[in-house]
């Protein structure tokens, strides 16, 4: 009986063990299947996300490429080709030359040629059709007859300030308006009469065609006619500065644009006011005027594009750095004083 009981227990134990094994096996199989399914789902999601990102990147790249192509096409379409010629004011020459260089970099198929010669000559040439643009320190009516002037269109590109200049060794730093008139009309001939050394005054004058001369006559000399000195007469501001630099008793006048980074000569104040852009803007310094670029009628498409470029935002920052004034910065007092003249 005992042996039979042991055999029954052993049989039951073996059966229990087999059942446990089967249960364990079922549990393991279910866990593996679940993990495998989760992994497959994760892998599928990652693949879908990667595909979406690739598609989005491709769309973005395509859009950027299309925008770049559109911009390039627009730039090419707006580029100017042809030729522009300008002549006239020596005071405006540095600005016009700088603008021409910058404009041609953006429009390599357009050639801009700028020369001096004086405001009167520039106005005459544009009226005759010899150049596209006539640069002038004064209004066309001051240099041309009424009929010729009426055919021109005025573009006021900036303001210009004129300053008396003397040799760097001259101890005179300020002149009254009366003294300045006396010197340039030839009534005062020695520097000792205006607080300087006993030394002859040497006038470096401008030709009658000069717009700089006309502007200086109106605003510095109260309309008095400048004395002539044919031996030292020039409308080339560079030559004038060199002449003043080499002659201790010399005096002349130039635009501020020719005095940027120039310490070979020195400026003279008028009635205690220094010739600076700030004093021009606030109206305390009176010797200034508008710089004009005239076209015959509306002018050519190329001339219009060049003038618009000079007056646009792209080039505006260079105006003051080159010694020119921004018209919109002129105070009401300064403008009204000129309009009343």
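-> sequence recovered:
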């Amino acid at each position: 009986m005992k042996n039979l009981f042991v055999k029954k227990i052993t049989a039951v134990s073996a059966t229990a063990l087999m059942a446990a094994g089967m249960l364990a096996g079922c549990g393991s199989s279910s866990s593996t299947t679940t993990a495998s399914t989760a992994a497959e789902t994760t892998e599928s999601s990652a693949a879908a996300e990667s595909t979406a990102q690739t598609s989005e990147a491709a769309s973005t790249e395509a859009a950027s490429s299309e925008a770049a192509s559109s911009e390039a096409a627009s730039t090419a379409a707006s580029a100017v080709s042809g030729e522009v010629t300008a002549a006239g004011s020596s005071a405006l020459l540095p600005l016009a030359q700088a603008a021409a260089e910058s404009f041609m970099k953006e429009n390599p198929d357009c050639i801009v040629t700028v020369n001096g010669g004086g405001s009167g000559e520039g106005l005459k040439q544009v009226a005759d059709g010899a150049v596209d643009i006539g640069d002038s320190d004064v209004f066309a009516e001051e240099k041309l007859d009424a009929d010729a002037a009426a055919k021109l269109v005025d573009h006021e590109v900036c303001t210009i300030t004129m300053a008396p200049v003397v040799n760097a060794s001259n101890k005179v730093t300020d002149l009254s308006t009366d003294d300045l008139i006396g010197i340039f009309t030839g009534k005062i001939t020695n520097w000792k009469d205006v607080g300087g050394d006993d030394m002859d005054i040497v006038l470096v004058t401008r030709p009658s065609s000069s717009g700089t001369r006309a502007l200086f006559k109106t605003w510095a000399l109260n309309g008095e006619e400048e004395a002539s000195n044919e031996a030292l007469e020039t409308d080339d501001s560079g030559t004038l500065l060199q002449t003043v630099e080499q002659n201790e008793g010399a005096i002349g006048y130039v635009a501020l644009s020719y005095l940027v980074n120039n310490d070979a000569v020195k400026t003279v104040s008028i009635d205690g006011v220094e010739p600076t852009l700030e004093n021009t803007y606030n109206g305390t310094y009176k010797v200034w005027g508008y710089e004009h670029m005239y076209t015959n009628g509306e002018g050519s498409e190329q001339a219009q594009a060049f003038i618009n470029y000079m007056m646009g935002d792209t080039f505006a920052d260079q105006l003051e750095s080159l010694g020119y004034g921004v018209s919109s910065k002129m105070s009401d007092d300064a403008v009204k004083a000129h309009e009343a003249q």
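The first strand starts at residue 82 and ends at 88.
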